[in-house]
Amino acid sequence: MFQVRIHGRGGQGVVTAAELLADAAFRQGRHAQAFPSFGSERTGAPVVSYCRIADGPIRVREPVLAPDALIVQDATLLRGIDVFDGLAPDGYVLLNTRRTFADMGVADRVAALPAGHAVTVAATDLALEHLGRPLPNAVLLGAFAALYPGLDLDAVLAALRTRFPGAVGERNVTAARAAHDAVAAQAETPAPDAAAPKEATRA
């Protein structure tokens, strides 16, 4: 079973991101579940959602405490929450920022991960460019499809088109493709230090 924990703030589509990820997994013939963990949080308050993906039925229902992957939709959360808590030693990290992990002061938290398992991408910038709104969730799923080999980009795009039909869906698809390409291009570029986590940043 592959477990994903998504951190963000109210209004950023954190819950929708988990649901879309589960939808994409279903489209690949896998079992999946998605659910949030929040109470009466207002817009801007920290929110967490979870997604589990497996080849068979998923019976566990508790929050994901030992994630195989983290998607962080708002980098400001790094200042007050240990988003890396419980991350698997060979896990994946996708952080929404135009800065590097070193710039954010958390390079030590991802240094031990396998090369290419930790990336940053300016998802909010891409959302503003293609959607006209600072909603990074769909953008990050496109990036995640480039980071995690078990997720197919076509499945993500199909989930987006179903959830957001028409012109809105196509704009989300364009933004997700752009993020996917940014991460994929970085993976093809040799890093100065092969042991250092790769980062896909946008000016």
TrEMBL record:
<dbReference type="InterPro" id="IPR051626">
    <property type="entry name" value="Oxidoreductase_gamma_subunit"/>
</dbReference>
<protein>
    <submittedName>
        <fullName>2-oxoacid:acceptor oxidoreductase</fullName>
    </submittedName>
</protein>
<dbReference type="InterPro" id="IPR019752">
    <property type="entry name" value="Pyrv/ketoisovalerate_OxRed_cat"/>
</dbReference>
<dbReference type="InterPro" id="IPR002869">
    <property type="entry name" value="Pyrv_flavodox_OxRed_cen"/>
</dbReference>
<feature type="domain" description="Pyruvate/ketoisovalerate oxidoreductase catalytic">
    <location>
        <begin position="10"/>
        <end position="180"/>
    </location>
</feature>
<dbReference type="Pfam" id="PF01558">
    <property type="entry name" value="POR"/>
</dbReference>
<keyword id="KW-0560">Oxidoreductase</keyword>
<dbReference type="InterPro" id="IPR011894">
    <property type="entry name" value="PorC_KorC"/>
</dbReference>
<dbReference type="GO" id="GO:0016625">
    <property type="term" value="F:oxidoreductase activity, acting on the aldehyde or oxo group of donors, iron-sulfur protein as acceptor"/>
</dbReference>
<feature type="region of interest" description="Disordered">
    <location>
        <begin position="183"/>
        <end position="203"/>
    </location>
</feature>
